[in-house]
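pipeline/complex-builder :: batch 7 item 3
reading input block
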Amino acid sequence: MKVPTNQELRRALEALRNGVPNRDAVRFLGCTQAEVTDRYRAQLQEIDSARREARQVPGMLVAGGFGSGKSHLLEYLKHLAVEQNLVCSLVVISKETPLYDAAKVYAAAVESAVVPGLTGQAIHEIALRLRQDSPRYAEFFQWSTSENSGISPVFPATLLLHERLANDPDMLEQIRGFWAGGKLPIADIRAGMKQIGQVGTFQLRPVPTREIARQRFRFASQLIAGAGYRGWILLIDEVELVGRYSLLQRSKSYAELARWMGHVETEQLPGLTVVAAITDDFTLNVLQEKGDRLNVGARLHSRDAEEYRVLAGRAEAGMRTIEREAVTLRPPDTEMLEQTYETLKRIHGQAYGWDPPDVPSAARALRRAMRSYVRRWINEWDLRRLYPGEALETVETELKIGYAEAPELEQTTADDDPDD
Amino acid sequence: MATTITPNRWFDFIGTEYLENFIRDGGSSIKFAVPFSEPARRAIASEAMAHATEAGYFLTNVSAHETRVHMVDQIFFRVAEQIPWRRLSTDVIVKLAELNGYRRPADGTEPLFRRIGEANNIDAEMVQMEARTWIAERVFRQRSLAKDFRVAVTRLCLAELSGGPDGETIIAAISDWLTGRNKAISAVRPYQIFSRIDRSNARHMLESLLRWVQFAGHSGVIVMLDISRLTVSKNPHDESLFYTKAAMLDAYEVLRQFIDSTDRMVGCLLVVTPDIDFLTEEQSGRGIGAYDALKLRVYDEIHDQRLVNPMAALIRLSSEDRAE
């Protein structure tokens, strides 16, 4: 490992003060979850071949207590992916990005995407990398026009326009914006096709709203491969927020989770694989105590429509994933704690040019999360450096996460600027 | 009773620990500084101004009273309005000129290329030709800037270089686009900019703005973000914005995203100043407890009984230092 700069050390500490690991923190502290990283490497290994076989590499769900290092792990996995020439998106489930809304998950995935060697808006920059004379591009184009692609003809039509309208930067920008999740009227696509003498080549119809997000994911996965990358990794953090949605939206979220894990045969996403993180008490507090295990299926079936029967099946699959397939993170043992302590002490000392004294560790407890240790140590070293000679008295209150339903999480505020 | 620190002492720490080194060297940080009184709120604002001036930072103020802080593009526009774009363009061109062995031009009203020529006793047209190459190589090709931003600042630099009425027209159009004063793409399409600035790209634009400020040779940007309006629970029907609970959560989500993307920001200190009600932990309230994702990143569940850690994510400010 190259010698870290002072700036990198401070950046790591700054992130750890926020409890949000960044690339520097992950680089210095590493990752000790061997079972997860081994399985992940296997996922990455398989992604290219699976794409050619038109199947999705099954995803992985990891579970851990609050502060156990789930976000740290996902950040670590992100860098592993990028190092292996994969595009990687880290999406945090939030009010803006509810798990049940594929369009918003797509927007967040595109916005957060890290592309090896590139900066800026991912889809735009990836599109600029497309080389029409490359075998990868040829494979991509052929796929887009095939009957089994699962995408609307709108996509290959825009791809053809992107190829042929190099002298119309405005149109190119609109097309890239469309691929990234924006709107592009069918009339504009038809006008473009007329411009390049390809009227009638594709049957162009608007794509239903509920379909377009899923098709965008499918298209973007192949676009990424067409531009020469090995595939697309989607990391989904804080899935437990789902527990605060209404029953219907929780049901839809479970169904989406099943899809992300690759459990829906008819909606595979070749070229993409997922790792998601959830709290380890979700099964107890939501699936059991809220009764989702029993109520979700019953409620959806009671609606007596095919759409809800399908949804019920997928929701059941999603809940089973949470209950039975989650890989639980290893809690910190003595060796892990000592290693982390020594590393952090060294980082703090190098970052601020001083010799941190040993600080008393909090009493080792099974339920004490790594976050608690790390924050305590950094806080105490900060105080000892800034207030030399002062006696310290560290207190810790318990941070509780609740699963009470919050209807505001499902409400959207106006997206449009009223000045428009 | 919570442990507090005075705004003056806190910002002194911030100056020493952040502004004079870490942030100037390219780092970024977000702090939530909760004033426990109006004098403390006023004091933090004046401390920010004093330290920004002293350390060579641009100070920008965004308030939830008049800016829709639940929309990141609105935050970008408000920050962009307070950035001296023409000065930055001039600074960049002068920097590039000096890097290429030219002497600094004198101030004046003549177009910049003429002033550089005069200062160096070189034909102005030659200077203009050469400067265009510098701008192409060091600005237009600067891949760390988002594409549309790159195009915009390239145009600004070229316009600033050449001056004249045409230059003024371009500067006005690009500045209006950057600041949201004119959202019509038709105004900037002639300059090869084809996208609106909206929620999908505002964060990239802000990151580019921060990089541009440092590239122009300045220390960075301090953003003072007053979110005290968010905790107002009933619409007072006054002249300020009112946030529904949903909008308030959106605003907290914007802040959460800023925290998570600190690594992508360069040379920025973001100081968020909420109302004291922000510290309310009830999930049903309007404070930090309403949004777990923000709370888990900011809340100081581990702290000292007597001493305030000025480097912590959450700081309580009052007119005098106080221990629990």
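note: Chain A touches chain B through 66 residues (CB under 8 Å).
queue -> next item
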